[in-house]
Design brief:
By secondary structure, the protein is mainly alpha-helical. It has helices at about 15-40, 50-70, 70-105, 115-120; strands at about 5-10, 10-15. A hairpin with a 2-residue loop joins strand 1 and strand 2. The chain starts with 5 loop residues before the first strand and ends with a helix.
């Protein structure tokens, strides 16, 4: 997985680097998802997709830093955001389940922007 696939201007691309690049795109792309959800709702919101992309991006970056680079600093830097994202996703899912049980309604589709940011602080 560390054997070079191609090289651009002295940048060697390996399969692990491709995984790392994809992970960075996921981790950074979550902000685009959040911005689009906020725009659609007309108020600041954090959709479930934001937390899912955070977990996936952090998980892939952790794998990259463990097996692709053997870099403990990068691993530690990604463990904390992943832990926070897992916690927030669980709180979000628990709140959706409670809302569904109290309203007798089906839950909103995963990834939809249905709660303003302020509500997440009041739980």
């Amino acid at each position: 997985m560390n054997s070079p696939m191609l090289q651009f201007f002295n940048v060697v691309v390996t399969p692990w680097k491709l995984i790392g690049y994809f992970a960075v795109l996921l981790f950074a792309g979550r902000w685009l998802v959040q911005m689009l959800a906020t725009r659609a709702q007309g108020k600041p919101v954090i959709p479930t997709t934001f937390w899912s992309m955070s977990i996936a991006g952090s998980g892939l970056l952790c794998a990259y830093f463990i097996w692709g680079k053997s870099d403990s600093v990068g691993l530690i830097a990604n463990l904390f955001p992943m832990g926070v994202a897992i916690y927030n996703l669980l709180i979000d899912l628990r709140a959706r389940h409670a809302a569904r049980a109290s309203d007798g309604q089906s839950p909103p589709p995963a990834g939809t922007a249905d709660r303003p940011v302020q509500e997440s602080y009041q739980q």
